[in-house]
Amino acid sequence: MRLDFNVLWVDDQPDRIDAQIKAIKLSMFDEGFEFCAAKCRSVDEVKAKLADNVFCDEIDLVLVDWDLGGGVQGQDAIREIRDRVPYKD
Q: Which residues contact 9 (CB under 8 A, 6 or more apart)?
């Protein structure tokens, strides 16, 4: 049984999600799980991260910021993720 929980978190300001990641890690640790968040700032970083097939198999959840800056919307990142990993929440 896997006790880790892997999240792909896409946000153009990753330093702003660090407190949330820390709180989730602590809460899940108390329940016996290890929370692992892989952060990406852009659609290009998402593509690079998803190029690793092993990582794709380990993703449990994908969180995407709605406004990724520079006119890029979260739905653009979601489209890229769905093309590569179609059956993730």
A: 17, 21, 37, 38, 39, 40, 62, 63, 64
Tally Cβ neighbours within 10 Å of residue 78: 15
Note whether 66 and 72 are within 8 A (CB): no
Residue with tokens 């852009």: 42
- Confidence (pTM): 0.84
Residue 38 CB-half CA count within 13 A: 20
Is 62's pLDDT higher than 80? yes
Task: Please classify residue 47 by burial: count the beta carbons closer than 10 Å to its beta carbon, then call 0-12 exposed, 13-18 middle and 19+ buried.
Answer: middle
